[in-house]
Specification:
This is Tyrosine recombinase XerC. Forms a cyclic heterotetrameric complex composed of two molecules of XerC and two molecules of XerD. One of its GO terms (cellular component) is cytoplasm. This protein is mainly α and 300 residues long. The protein folds into two domains: 2-89, DNA polymerase, domain 1, CATH 1.10.150; 116-292, hpI Integrase, Chain A (Orthogonal Bundle), CATH 1.10.443. The protein contains 13 helices and three strands; from the N terminus they run αααααααβββαααααα. Strands 1-2-3 form a three-stranded antiparallel β-sheet. Helix 2 (20-41) crosses helix 4 (70-89), helix 6 (131-146) runs antiparallel to helix 8 and helix 6 packs across helix 10 (243-256). It starts with a helix and ends in a 6-residue tail after the last helix.
Length: 300
């Protein structure tokens, strides 16, 4: 089965255009599944052709006994389901043994985000004229202005950013391309950063990374997180938040200001509108809070 798993991972990377991070996660989950099957069946030679529902149910039951989180079990089941469907398409299995298996119900967690005041305080906390601070300010402004994912921002090249049209060309999940507007505040911060960068590293070419670290090479995800953590500390925000909180803030504040859900979904690069609908709960809860505080007959 190892050979078929390797083929499936190659399929995810080359045909489905999954990110290296996602492919690595699938690899870990399927390696654990294979290790379980070897112990469960008492043999190192596990054939993909004899994969059945009983074995997969046994795997899920083992995960539950190990007290894995429901979200973790669902993720691992998704990996097995994807692999099983691949085997059917390749003619290795006649029927998909995972067809009737459904994910566990989980408590829906709503994303953490910044209020408008918190977002302003975070951005204004990043001051200074050295390249590190200019880069930090520009990235935070762009996260909040355009709702980019971390991988999308770190993957930007100079040629993807159009300062005259105030837009950025983004390659999202599955290498799907989209154009996203950039606000004037973010554009000003990016212009200041690019001027500082040119002073230190010289003029940037179109194919060069837009955001670079101290060595002039493409900035790493962990470096972005470190800069955001420093900004949070300066802003007096003790929460442990990542760039995704700025993406959530972008969507929530756009919705609160009257933007339609379809436009927000397009800007976020969501394949399904249902993914974007989670933000409607946040805005409704906020409206309820305002109503309780302001209406004379709200009961508060």
């Amino acid at each position: 089965m190892e050979e078929q798993i390797a083929e499936y991972l190659k399929h995810l990377a080359l045909r489905r255009k999954y990110s290296p991070h996602t492919v690595a996660a699938y690899a870990r989950d399927l390696a654990e599944f294979l290790a379980f099957l070897r112990e469960y069946l008492g043999t190192d030679r596990v054939s993909d052709k004899r994969l059945d529902r009983l074995e997969i149910r046994g795997y899920l039951a083992w995960l539950a006994r190990e007290e894995r989180a429901k979200t973790t079990i669902n993720r691992k089941l998704a990996a097995v389901k994807g692999f099983s469907a691949f085997l059917v398409r390749e003619g290795r299995l006649k029927a998909d043994p995972t067809g009737s298996l459904v994910s566990l119900k989980t408590e829906r967690r709503h994303p953490e985000y910044f209020t408008r005041e918190q977002a302003d305080r975070l951005i204004e906390s990043v001051e200074g004229s050295n390249l590190r601070e200019l880069c930090s300010r520009a990235m935070i402004e762009l996260f909040y202005s355009s709702g980019l994912r971390l991988s999308e921002l770190t993957g930007l090249d100079c040629q993807n950013y159009n300062s005259s049209r105030l837009q950025v060309r983004v390659f999202g999940k599955g290498s799907k391309e989209r154009l996203v507007p950039v606000g004037r505040k973010a554009a000003e911060a990016i212009a200041a950063y690019l001027a500082g960068r040119e002073n230190k590293f010289g003029p940037a070419r179109g194919g060069d990374p837009l955001f670079v670290g101290r060595n002039g090479k493409r900035i790493l995800k962990r470096q972005v997180q470190r800069l955001l953590t420093e900004a949070l500390r300066r802003a007096g925000d003790s929460r442990s938040l990542g760039p995704h909180a700025l993406r959530h803030s972008f969507a929530t504040h756009m919705l609160e200001a009257g933007a339609d859900l379809l436009s927000i979904a397009e800007m976020l690069g969501h394949a399904s509108l249902s993914t974007t609908q989670k933000y409607t709960h946040l805005t409704i809860e906020r409206l309820k809070q305002v109503h309780r505080q302001a209406h004379p007959r709200s009961g508060s």
